[in-house]
Write a structure and sequence with these properties.
Number of strands: 0
Helix content: 55-70%
Strand content: under 5%
CATH superfamily: Heme oxygenase-like
Bound molecules: protoporphyrin IX containing FE
Oligomer: single chain
Length: about 210
Amino acid sequence: MLNPPLSLQLREGTQDSHRTAESTPFIRVFFSGKLSISQYRNFLLQLFHIYSAMEENPEVLYNDPELQKIYFPELFRSLRLSKDLNLFFGKEDWKSIPILQTTQEYVDRIRFLNNQKNYALVAHHYTRYLGDLSGGQAMKKIVLKMFPEEYHTGISFYEFPEISNFDDFKNEYRSRLDSLSIDVAVGQSMIQEARLAFQFNTKITGSLLE
Ligand code: HEM
């Protein structure tokens, strides 16, 4: 185990990045309940491609004795996002819509790490999934208030039916992170990678209102 433990290093090492990520104009408009359907579904579209990249080779996680410690299929979001997107676009033609260049770079980065079976992948999972189980839950409430009732079934992205207690789950996730047998250098590369993941998220929401 690293000292301080990896989960603590990740949290502390990304505190500034978190603050930046949660205060982009898009997130502010989101929390004030003033996004348009078109802005919101464009956001979901970017997320769909990011999660698809994270989830397309699950064997990279479950075939590795260390990475399998953070293999939690109940966290997977891509199928859920595609359901929400079908509703928000009204049909399935969203699949051919081009994504932002930053999203493409984020996707390429995840695929690169996946192909290399690089442990820095963990940082991408941490950044998105723990975020979804935290601030993401507040976003679900906003979506329900912000959009008319016909869209209220489009919140699958925020739902984790197999997780009964989010705080317990997050603690379990953190203890799995802490149980990874990694050295200081790999730990450092994960913190760096988590900062990069936050930056990608910040850049994406930074361009969604334009
Ligand atoms: C939208 C505005 C956001 C709000 C209101 C928010 C809120 C929160 C809160 C309250 C926590 C603490 C939860 C806990 O310790 O159990 C948290 C943790 C976290 N958030 Fe956010 N967040 C937001 C945006 C983001 C974004 C954009 C990301 C990255 C994509 C993110 C990633 C994380 C991560 C990884 C954690 C876990 C930190 C840790 O305990 O190690 N959040 N968030």
